[in-house]
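Hi X.,

You mentioned you wanted examples for the new student's onboarding notes, showing what a folding record looks like when two proteins sit in one file. Here is a clean example. The first protein comes first, with its sequence line followed by its structure tokens.
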Amino acid sequence: MPARLFVIHGSHPCATVEAALDLKGVAYRRVEIPAATQPLIMRPLFGGRTVPGIRFEDGEKVQGSRAILRALERRVPDPPLYEGAAGAAAIEEAERWGDEVFQPVPRQLLWTAFAAHPRAMHAFQDGQRSPKLPMPVVLGAAKVILPVERRINDVSDAGVLTAIAELPGLLDQIDAWVAAGVLGGAEPNAADLQIAPTLRLLWALRDLRPLMAGRPSEALITRWLPPMTAEVPEGALPMGRAGAADHSPAAGVPGHPTPTG
């Protein structure tokens, strides 16, 4: 029996793991769970409330994108995810940052954008294995899903404004890693697979595209991932503070600007 990967369709950390499984040629069965149900389903199965979680064919269970990538590396060393010209330590640091610092950003912004444009949620079903829900059902479900997801992800008006203000600095960090060869090499590494799905999800928010377009990091969005067809139209986010944060270099990642937050 192949491995079973538990995901929420559209989740960026789930996309990280799927890309790694495909890269390493590991067979798996995708088990989609409905949005907003992850605490109820994942905690009994894996101990924590978040996706992704995987049960390998030998029964080993691993939860979380970084932990799963390390388990994959142990099981299938080739192609390697933690080797490259920049060195394993730099890749691991970028991967950690992509998980802990960058990954939460679209959670703040997307659920806020969906509240402004709930009809956009319909297209985000594209590519899922389960039947696509019609628009009236999506709009009805949004009334339940949006408050739950905002609570799960600790979304607040202040958090949204902070995320928008700090985004240019976060993109500066990624651009610096591209310039240093940590990201964007000939083959994807663990940091590429951690960061690219978050970039792709942010690109789906049309309000953010002027901040992202033309940067070296833009090229990472679809280099190893298929493009997203779904998007949220302009006007969904309060963009007044974009670019207001100080993005000067600071200590933390040698030679790179360090974002606040």
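Then the second protein repeats the pattern, sequence line and then tokens:
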Amino acid sequence: MSSPFLPFALPEIGDEEIAEVVDTLKSGWVTTGPKARRFEQDFAAFLGDPTRGETLQCVAVNSATAGLHLALEALGIGPGDEVITTTHTFTATAEVVRYLGADVKLVDIDPATLNIDPAAVAAAITPRTRAIMPVHYAGLAADMPSLLGIARRHGLKVVEDAAHALPTTSGGALVGTLDSDATVFSFYANKTITTGEGGMLVTRDAALAARARTMRLHGMNRDAFDRFTAKVPSWYYEVVAPGFKYNLTDIAAALGIQQLKKAHAFQQRREAIAAMYDAAFAGLPVLRPPRPAAGDRHAWHLYVLRLADDAGIARDLLIERLFDAGIGCSVHYIPLHLHPYWRDRYALQPAMFPHSQRAYERMVSLPIYTRMSGADVERVVLAVRSALR
């Protein structure tokens, strides 16, 4: 009998998460309420160092897309503005700029790290540029010292797309505590921790956080939890702006509360799987993922192999052979410059992004998640070796 299909990703949900969700259901408060607030507080504590007097503001939202949108909106990005980001990302990173009527300026990646290239960012700045949105690809920190330096010199805002990057570090500091204007994490089902759907906007800017909290729920100046739990009950609220429906429910936050406690253990297991892959693929005609700088941590949301020129097999055929062997895999990402909307709107050509294009044509993301056993990892290794033969 053949082995069962090994999926590309699976969340690890334990008894603690189940008990927290059941407690939420029994409480009668299932939308945004005490658990969402507790998750925000726990997340700030996870990132912050009280000895340094951290004043991190955390705003729970229903997706990282929502968090990125709220961050840019709070920074005043709008028509006539440009925001620079990488072509090598999921469309959400760029589409939130268009939500606000601003334009996206896509740039290429560093071929070694697959992260946004600071030199390309510097070259893309125009009088219309207002912000930079780096993506910490696969869980490896982008070159934040260079990007923050560019932003300071040109008076630009920085919003980090950290969807892959919990608990990534840069220069020894957790992503989320750097000197950017805002950082946004994702808790989608396949991320390093999950709430099913969800995200967190993190900032030190109290005014930005206050605006995001207002705009995440229809532009109301008081949410339901505040109104219905006040010592003096008050049904009254005011709509101060045309906001959005971006709040995180308590059911989702309940998952996050318990998942966050396991974030470091999850990262250690992912790192161990990455190390097993690295050892197994040494000497094969592939490029293994880049490692973090000494003293830093990679979240290992993704493990991305790239075929070398002498691999003797096309990427798509490799994927077909892996699926035939019962191994789920994916590609991260089809660069934005290849998608009809972005290609046509900005007259983009593959030759404008040679490093992203080359990486895309050769890359495959292998399964890497905490529920994988040693035998599962060995199955993937054998399937890759067999496919390359």
